[in-house]
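User: Run a structure prediction on this.
Assistant: Running it now.
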Amino acid sequence: MIVKQGTFGQVCAAFGALMVGCDAPSAGSATDSEGQGGSTSSGASASSTSDTVPTTSDGGSATQAGSTGDEPPPPPPAYDEWLVVHLPGAVCGNGSEYKIFVNYHEGAKDLLVMLEPGGACWDFDTCSGKAPLGAAHPDGVPDNLMFDPLTSALSPLIRRDYDGPTRDWNLVFIPYCTGDVHTGNNVITYADPNGVEPDLEFHHNGHNNIMAATGWMADNFPGLDRLFITGCSAGGAGSLINYHFFRQGIDAKRGYLMDDSGPIFPSNGPSGPMHDKIRSSWDVDSVLSLLPPGYEITDDFGVLNVHLSKLYPDDRLSTIFFQRDYNYSRYSYERFYPDMTKDKTLAFWAEDTDALQALYDPHPNLAYYFPYWRGLNDSHCVSIVSYKDTDIQEKGVTVETFIDDLLDDNKPLVSYRESVQPNEDL
């Protein structure tokens, strides 16, 4: 099914000068007179002509899951457009059909997989949408998700009109509708603590959806050169937790990871109570038990960072986030500690950040990028919408240069942490 990309002009209207390319076309980009993106690498327009989502035939389409894996995949229905892929048996939290989206680029041998962000849930209030902090797509994933300009242009990494390192890659977008950072393996019934609403059956099916998507990608993208797994927030956490399963399931010579603002901190710090909660609600242990022998995870989720470093010594793995992130930090602590304030929340976040940095520093294939603050989105997610205000001036770097270097095997991985900026986030 072909899905029209959201127009770049709509995104600019929403975010203005924060959006890369809104002030003027970015280097190498091509925009029409109305400022709409969606160009191919040659500069030709690649917009669709209808807002409907037509259905492909039932005979061997590249947008259908379940090819044999023994034959080359058929040619895709279209290049440089978002197509919907239905995955039989995969479900959202409410039990509705799950799906992913693919954007082929002709001749590409590299694949970017981006996991969608969108909060998390682990009890009646958060999974029913009654709590201020909840999870995305409680009613399921629409076929036309990539019509939404804020989704299709979520990051410069998935924009064909932005002259970045993944512009000419194949792209897969993994939606998020299970409230479990793409990681759960549990069907659970949550009861209303007030005894008013009916019980809520919720499918924390994130990991199984990832495995279904991985199987489809293995069939449709054989023999890749590079595989880049990323996402922000829940998508960032899911990219790291599922990295081993992506790497085992998809044939690629080289692997890269960028967990944006979904860090997996050590469990012996402030994040410990949240880790305990999700173990029971999402049955994460049943997923982590699938790691290879010798790489078990028992009491400390944070050791997964080191396990991946050792399992994939030639891969380049990273975590990035703002030190004043007041979104993921709230999910991590607010429902687990009494009388939380912003200062207390960010003090816990700083403590967890110190512990994660200590984990990363001894390993040459692990890197981090920790700028201090920016005004967009409560300093949550570094690589979304725009790279504006992601710089660490004292080091002369931006997250864009960090990503370029991450994907350049000829450069050593370098970690960066900005000093405290007392005049920011006042």
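The mean pLDDT is 86.
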